[in-house]
Every structure is written in C-alpha cells, then in structure tokens.
Amino acid sequence: MLRTVGTAGVWVAMSVATWAGVAYWLGERFVDELPEVQPTKTDASTQRHGLTSLPAPAEALVIPDRVGRGETLSSVLARNGFDNAEIHNTARALAAIMDVRHLRVGDELEIRYDGSGVPASIVLDRSDLRHIELTRSELGWQSQAEEIELTRRTVSLGGVLEGNLFSSISRLGEGAPLTVSFANVFAWDFDFYTQSRSGDRFSIVVEKLYREGEFVGYGELRAARYVSYLSGERVFSAFLYEDPAGKRDYYNPDGKSMRKAFLRAPLDFERISSGFSYSRLHPVHRRRMPHLGVDYAARTGTPVYSVASGVVTGREFTKGGGNQVTVRHAMGYTTKYLHLSRFAKSLRVGQRVEQKEVIGYVGMTGTATGPHLDFRLFHHGKPVNPVTQIFPPGPPVAEEYFTDFEKRRAGLMTQLESQRAERPSSVAADDS
Which domains does the chain have, with CATH numbers? Predict the structure, then answer.
C-alpha cells in the first residue's frame, strides 16, 4: 500500500514540474508585456464616496409639436409617448390655470425629455399671447403661466362691401378672425350669408395687439356698424360696454342687448334650398306636402350648432329625417335638426348644450336628395318659421348705469363715424 502511494506521488510531482516548465517557456516566447492601466479620473465627491464616475448622460431631447384640427391635449401627448396616467396628471396640472378644452388649432407645444427619456417639461405657447410651462417635480407636475407683454392699439377701419364680408375686410389688410368677430356681433339680427349685398357699408373699432412691434392678433372689438341696403337702408350698430358691476355685453344705441335668446341660423350655410311652407312639391315623393322647416344647403360635415341653450331631448334615427337631434329651450321653444351625417361626439339625451355648441354635422341621411340641414322650430308645440320669428333680446343696460353707457357710446360713435364710407355711385344707381 505504501509502495503504491509513493509511486503515484512521484508521477504526479514529475507531471506538475514538466507542465510548469512548458508554461514558462510559452510565456517567455509568446506573451508580450501588458500595457500599463491608467487610473480613472474622478472628482473629489466621487473619490470621497469611493465611487468611479459614470459616462456622461445622454443629451436632453426637445420635440416640437402643434395642436391640429380636432385634436385635444390627450391626443397630442399620446402620440408623443405619454401613457394614460401621465396624460391625466399633466391635464390636471394644466387645468389649474386654463380650461384644457380651450386649446386652439395652431397652439404650439415643446415637449422636453431628460437624458433617460422621461418627460421633464412641456411648454405651451398660445398664439404669441400666453406662455405656459408644465414641469415635473418630486410633487408631480406643476404649472405656471406667463402673460406675454403686448402693446395694444385701438384702430378704426371701414369700407364698402364688394363680393362678401371676408374678402372686403381682407382687402383692408385684416385677417379672418376679425371678420368672424364682426359677423358674430350681429349674428342674432343679420345673416351675412343671405342678406348682405355689394355696396353695403361697414365700420369697425378694434384693439390690435403687437409684440415687439409685430402684429400678433386682435383684442377687443369695441364697436361695429353695418349698413344694409337689402330693403331700404337698415343700420345695425353695436357697442361693447362693461358696467361697474362687471356685466359685459354688446348693446345697440338704445342700450338693448345685441344678444338674443336664439341665433338666426344653426350653421354656416351656402344657401336656403327650401323654405317654410304648408304646401311644397316634395323632391322625392313628387307630391305637394307641408315642409314645416327651412333647408340649409351646406357641404357634408359642416358643423351644426344649437341655436340656443337647452337640453337634448332626442338623438335618434328616423326613416324620413335620418339622424336627428331635438333640443328643448326656455320660453316654450323646441328645435329639431334633421339629416345629420353624424352626431357630435358624446352627445346624449338629457345633456345640456349651450348656444352655438356643436351637436352634429351636415349630411343626407334619411329621405334627402343632397347634403343639407332641415331645421325646424316649434313654439309651444306649434311649428313656426325660423326665418321670420322675432326672438326676445337679452337684458338691457341697467338703468342706473345708462348715463355711463351713453358716455362710452358717444366716444365709440365718433370713431365709427370717422370711417364712414360712401357707396359707389354705380351701386347706388343699381338699387334705386
């Protein structure tokens, strides 16, 4: 036993010695000297904590974006990688300083991500007038708003209608927002789509906004006048007035509100294709039938809005009227909107809608030969003609403030008169 173990030990010792020699020979012949390893540079703080510095983080990423037609804050953030929880938190922070539903087409956003790809801040610029910033902190998303310093100038302008209101105001070098504001002031009394004529006169007193000398938008439309020659001379004048109690509205020269309970029309239309009648030749059935509404021809998809505030009592499809909405209003009035291509998103029965809130879109569902809106108005259940119906105005200037209103009106009237444009003689002769 001892002999066997001793012999094995000799063989093991000889093998180790032999391979050690081979390894030494290979190392000397083939292995070069390793380069010297330079120590890593560390700052004092890193050395103090016994840490080695990490590579510099990636640069922050900035992505510009813009609110498109039909988009919301949620849809813009979602396409930039925000999850539902992040969208909810940012919307809640933004709601502290503005109504997120009031984002407009063209509002610009700048989304900033930190080096790890996490959203760090959102900058929102609202048409050069307001700068809003949302910043992520340990407490969540925080918001702050900065009103951009602007120079305000009140100007007077006027002209004679040639073609239509948009082109006439555009020829003065002004933009579409001013035209829309001007038309909205008279929306309860005058329909510019059907009643305006070349040769009509208009004048405007408006506040214009400038940033570092560059025009950026319109402020208050302080006074407006429109002279129509459709049937004789009719003068419409409106003055913006805010009383000492804070009530603010447009009033005519007598202090009566320009705002009526009902709009003159529920959409921007091209023409009236069929009027209110108790005996009309039906274009499909080819026999005379009552048509107790007004057909407004317009392109498919044109927004249709409620002519007054009220409650939705019907949202349905019928064989004749197609997709239709019914709204109940104050003072015994009800309105119906027929042949819609689709309803407004989330519109439901029992929902309250405001004046000029979109409830659907023009189409030709049901029995129809082309895209149009069949608009119907009922008073205490009886159908009435929307075109000839006279609606009650809103509250007038309070009696105790009427003297103050007269002073304000006098100054604005002078500015309107300074822009009084004469009708071309050829137009005047054509109308006589």
Answer: 61-147 (3.10.450.350), 151-260+401-431 (3.10.450.350), 271-384 (2.70.70.10)
